[in-house]
What does this fold into?
Amino acid sequence: MLKSFALSTLMVLGAASGALAQSDYPTQPITVVVPFSAGGPTDTVARLVAQVMSKELGQQVLIQNVGGAGGTLGAGQVANATNDGYTLLLHHIGMSTAPTLYRNLAFDPLTDFTPVGLITSVPMTIVARKDFEPTDMASLTTYLKANGQDVTYANAGIGSASHLCGMLLQDSLEVQMITVPYQGAGPAMTDIVGGQVDLICDQTTNTTNQIKAGEVKAYAVTSPARVDSLPDLPTTAEANLPRLEIGVWHGLYGPKDMDPAIVAKLEAALQTALQDPTVIQRFAELGTAPVPLDQATPQALTEELKGQIELWKPIIEEAGVYAD
It folds into this structure.
């Protein structure tokens, strides 16, 4: 009986200790893995949100860039991390395309993560080196149909947003370009600005500043309506390419089976960040906006991920582009 009583007491104390740890969370810095290189669009979103979440949570929220394999290396690292809330993942649309693109994917986006919430949906822009011959979207279309096989198209790697947009662009125009993959959007944009490659379709968070500075030539934005930060840039629909409409959504995740109390704290901190005036302003300058608060939830992120997996699966299978 004494042994039974002692065991029961230890179990109660252990449960109380666990509950106390959860209520005190966080007691140390939190690492958010961005599965792409520093300086890219997802990295920009992560750093803006992390600054405010740090203040709200009372602990530093640090960004760790783990690039490679279209974002699957960093995502896999978080899938295998301890689910104590101190290792998180901020990923984009690539979470929904990875199950089809990668035949030997080491994780399941739907079962190996705990969703926290959506963050933003970023439109994309079609831009080129500033001395590229075509002057507008109409002349670019004509040029690519005649010379596509000689045009170099940069992307941030298989599964990246720029890769997906490139597939849609080539499919819409029925052309093939020379694909030049990079280890992230930052290095790809550097070579566009430097004139080493011709063309890229990338998120406004990675192109707006270069467009405004005249460092690249811009042709169109892939959103249904023009973006406030680039009001003179027409949409792809205006350029008679209605199929070329793509937005790159971002979400925050933890490893699977995170404690609901920890998820709730992270969700609240994320929602606070998305209401922060500085975040709203910086997002607007980059051509995007925070999602409505009812989308910054685990349920909304789960629904978006499921729907996008179903959307992209036939598109990728039709293109016949896969990675090992």
Remarks:
- The chain has two domains: 28-122+248-319, 123-221.
- Strands lie at 30-34, 61-65, 87-91, 113-129, 152-155, 178-181, 199-203, 216-221, 247-255.
- The chain has a mean pLDDT of 90.
- The chain is about 45% helix and 20% strand.
